[in-house]
Amino acid sequence: MSNISLYSPIMEEHLRKIEQSLPRLLPAAGGNDDPLNGLQSTVIDAMNYACAAGGKRLRPVLVMEFCRLCGGDADTAIPFACAIEIIHCYSLVHDDLPCMDNSLLRRGRPSTFAAYGEDMGLLAGDALLNRAFEIMLAPESYAAIPPERALAASRCLATAAGAYGMIGGQVIDLQSENKAIDLAVLELLQRGKTMALISAACEMGAILAGATAEQTTAARQFGEQLGLAFQIVDDLLDVTSTEEELGKPIGGDAGHGKSTYVTLLGKDEARRLADIRTASAIGALHTFGEGADALRRLAEVFGNRKS
Hints:
Farnesyl Diphosphate Synthase, 307 residues
């Protein structure tokens, strides 16, 4: 999927600023601020490699767009947008490790552990997680916004990435391999593993803008429904797409004995549920009026994506 066809012109500008800012916010070895004199450069190279593979950058774009939509200056959200993308990248690094999915390919090139070794892949993921919070808690990151908003956005992300969110979902995923689980358990799994960060991205943008309670709730609900629809479509693509289209191995879920929306519901019913979730995401935006039309289109495009 082309980012150009996915995003509105304003969102494309968010994307440009994210791509410009992300390398600057990642660490560099051997500089004046490096007390280790570059001796840890391998892990820093792996960190930068993990974040340089592109992708849709959905989560950071959502942070900036909801900040703008709720009346804030989207540029002030850039450090927080980059932080959530860094956490997403760390999760992919760890997801590819031999103890997880053992995937040698990510976004059309060798996964981080395949390129740098399992040990450096593990450490790069750990370091990326820490770097995200270094960025958000740096004084320059909240110089232009009230510190309490920066703290609230950081806490939102920490919760979404932890044991009650992404990590918790991953645990359920691992413990469910080669077991029969029902739709209710699968929904809890994906609410953590996939939905949590997408919902947090929307909520963080609203928080940083100083949004009303109604706007913040709407942003969170949009992210929840978009995240769940995103995962259903991901499960469909795992059985209908190609490795070239996705940039990663297909059929991985079946190979690991995982239950998915497709295995539990079948392709037709999974497609129907994705459409329902997409419609619910669009419906959550009613409080924003016509200003959210680009997000409505985004939900529709994501709900029907082919890669």
